[in-house]
Every structure is written in structure tokens, then in C-alpha cells.
Amino acid sequence: RDKDKLNIGITCYPSLGGSGVVATELGKLLAERGHQVHFITHSMPFRLTGYHKNIFYHEVEVSDYHVFKYPPYDLSLAAKMAQVANMQKLDVLHVHYAIPHAVCAYLAKGMVERPLKVVTTLHGTDITILAHNESMADLIRLGINGSDAVTAVSNDLIRETQERLHITRPIDLTYNFVDKRVYYPRDCSRYRCDFAPKGEKILMHVSNFRPVKRISDVVDVFRRVNEEVPSRLVFIGEGPELGKTMARVREYGLEERVLFLGKQDEVAELLSVADIMLLTSEKESFGLVALEAMACGVPTVGTTAGGIPEVVKHGETGFLSDIGDTDSMADDCIRLLTDPTLYARVSANCTKRSQTVFCNDLIMETYEDIYYRILGRE
Ligand code: GMT
């Protein structure tokens, strides 16, 4: 793999969210590999703390000229992409999330002095939610068809993109990945004492608290589990459903047993404290948190929505039920928590699967091969 080192631009949503995490971690791996990586975003990606050799950050500034009722961020982004592409001689611009990034990249392509190849990675809600709107669908289709390569994070997302948007061009599968230097089973005894002082089992849910996560199902599953196995529920993250979730916890009288930690930057340190990760979503193109938990040896109990079954192998690395079937999910949790032999087997499968199918080097090389392919350097 001794091919030329590349100049790669990356655009993503820099604040909380799985797509931003994946884009930033990929950028870091590519930079370690010797490529020059230029992040073009409206603020510093939250996982990009400290100095990293070969990584550069270009901030998009939005014009606040008084004529604009709505400052045109998308145009500023496209202009910045073209400027960075020209100045840094970008070979590839890799955008994560179709709207508006793929469309901005399409515009930028028309403004650059030398050929610029564009890769678009679809992450989920850009297709499963935004593409339901007809005019948005036309824009997403334009971004997809105007890219030199398109990737998606699960086979289920590829299928849905092709069906919903009538896309016929090939879409590469690039599963999300975890860095095993960061996500591994850690000794979490100090957190365990804080979260579950009487040695209770710990169930965890990590998300942006959007309606698609069906977080009230998390509370319902926990209520049933706790009736049979003394347990605690730890929530990490925040978002629009947080208030409703707290209300449900109060309604069930479970305040003493449920902890809301809010947004946490260092999730890798906390995941190993969980015995089970709950992922009850009705839509989930991949479910990055299930993979992160898996890498820490923590099985996921959740739903068969979207790409989750490609990540969590039912019966091997966790257990999956139909969307909304909280009784079945609770039964699976109880079985796992009361059968140490079953738990040990599933937990061992988790670390093994995360380090093989979703290994960072493997997925990074898949992206690298796509860059070389579209540049004609195979
Ligand atoms: O889960 C979210 O709502 C955030 C969203 C995002 O754009 O960051 O996550 C999507 O991309 C992640 C990274 O590829 C996937 O792991 C999530 O499954 C996907 N979310 C949905 O499909 C709902």
C-alpha cells in the first residue's frame, strides 16, 4: 500500500452526532497514515482536541450582510471548499451527510482550478428522514449523482437510498469503525461504586434523545428488568426527548434508580461500566453506540431497525426484537443478566467482532481504496 499520499478535505457536522464522530476519527487515522487532512467545518469538530500532525482546520465564516434574512451558510461552505481545494491542492473532498454537504461539494467542484474528486458518505437520517420531503429528495439526488463515489454505512441504508431516491449508480459499503486503542473493556470500578453502590446491574442508553430513538421504550424495558433484577439505568446525552423521558421516570417512581449524566465527551471511559446497552430505535442506519459498547465487551439489547442487525448479531453479540416490543427486550436483558455463562460468551463475542468486522485499519483502507480508485491510481 505504498501509494501517493493525498490531500484530503473533510466536511462533516462538527458538533455531537455519529456522522461527525466517524468523519473526525477517519480524518485522524488518515493523518496518522501520512495523508494531509483538511477539515472544512463551521466549528472545530468536538473529537478533534489538541494538535495532530497532518491535520488542518479551516473555519467556514457565514456572511451577516444585512440584506440576508437567512445567512447563506451553504454558499459560504461551498466557497470555502473551493478556496481550500485550490490553495491546498486537494485531491479528494470527502463529505459526510448529504444535506447540505454533498450539494455544497457539487457547487465547489464547479469553482476549482484543478479537478476535484468528491466522495459522499450517507449516514442515515439524510436518507431515512430528509429524503421523505420531495424537494429535499431532488437535492439529495443531485448531490449523490454529482459525487465521484458514494458510500453508505450499512447495506440497509444502501437499499433504502436506491429504493427511495431511485438511485442506480453503485454505492460502496463502508461500515463504521471503532479505534481499539480507545474502545476496549476498561476497569470501571470507581464509576460502578457511584452508579450502582449496592452492586446492582447497570443498563445504559447513549443518544441525542431524538424521537427516532423511542427513549420511552428504554424506560419501559428498564422498569420490567428492575422488577426482577435490581438494576440502575444510566442515560448519556441530551436532546428534544429529555424532558419527556424524565417525566416518564418520575411517573414510574424510578427517580432513585435512574441517572441522567447529560452530554459527555469521553464516552469511551464510561461504556465499560454498563452491563447492557439499550438501543430501542425505530430508525437506525448503523447504531454507532452499539459498536462502541461492543468494543468494550458490552452487549446491546435493542430492535431490528435499519442496519442494527448488521452490527449486533442476534444471539451472538446481543439480542434484537421488533420495534416497540419492550417485553421481549426486557426478557432478553433478564436472561443475559441472570445467566453468567451466557453473558460471558456474548461479551467475549462482542470484543472479537468489533476488532474484526469493524476494525479501524480495515475500514480506513476501504476508504483509501475508494480515493485511489476515483483518482485512477489503483
Ligand atoms: O443518530 C442520530 O440521530 C445522529 C446521526 C448522525 O448523523 O450523526 O446518526 C446517524 O449516523 C451514525 C453514524 O454513521 C449512525 O451510527 C446512526 O445510526 C445514524 N442515525 C440514524 O440512522 C437515526
From TrEMBL:
Residues 197-352 form the Glycosyl transferase family domain. It comes from the Bacteria. Transmembrane segments: none annotated. InterPro entries: Glyco_trans_1 (IPR001296), Glyco_trans_4-like_N (IPR028098), Glycosyltransferase_grp1 (IPR050194), Thiol_BshA (IPR023881). GO terms for molecular function: glycosyltransferase activity. Residues 17-179 form the Glycosyltransferase subfamily 4-like N-terminal domain. One of its GO terms (biological process) is bacillithiol biosynthetic process. Pfam families: Glyco_transf_4, Glycos_transf_1. Signal peptide: none annotated. This is N-acetyl-alpha-D-glucosaminyl L-malate synthase BshA. It comes from Paenibacillus antri.
